[in-house]
What does this fold into?
Amino acid sequence: MILNHPGCPIGNTVSKLTRSEAKRQAIVDAARDIFIEKGYGESSMDDIANRANVSKRTVYNHFPGKDALFGSIIEGECDKAMESVAKRMAYCEEDIEGTLREFAARFLDIIYSPDGVKLFRTIVAEADRFPELGTVFFQAGVCPAQFHAQEYIAKMMDQGRLRKDDPEKAATLLFCLIKGDMHYKLLLCFQEEASPEELTALIDDALEMWMRAYAPAS
It folds into this structure.
């Protein structure tokens, strides 16, 4: 109860941090919706502040610009989806195929979700006018995800459980196989969504080819 007393500086700090984080999340949620609705170029910090029901100054207190805000959205989505599998990889989970299967499923959850597809369309459509979008996407989304896979693959190669090769190249190949051609179908509206059965088959085929390519010499 002492922590909630108005005169207690610790209690006040905790309360302020809680309110600050709540406002930050409201800003991120509002920005995600507006970027999808209006596109990156047509979205303004005023729009985001109004949607989040905060002042424009509050938005800038949390994010120096739209690119930082966009990066936070990408980073947050990736962190949320990859948290459990990143822990498995960090502890060198011995079930390689099972670990990579979970990694693939979480990765596809991100890029094949309705919001993920819409955000990627936004990046492609506006990257020419706003090159920072591509940089933000790679730094906040692709690079951390690929780093987790690359680091895990390198450890498995060092232990002799995968064929020794360039782990960066192996991780890149894994990403390409996992994405398949479904990503293009969704981005170009050729197909509205990927069914669970299609995603399972895609992951099965990708891992079968990848594991065969990097199986250790007998």
Residues 9-38 form the longest helix (30 residues). Confidence is low (pLDDT under 50) at residues 1-16. Residues 113 and 193 are 8 Å apart (CA to CA).
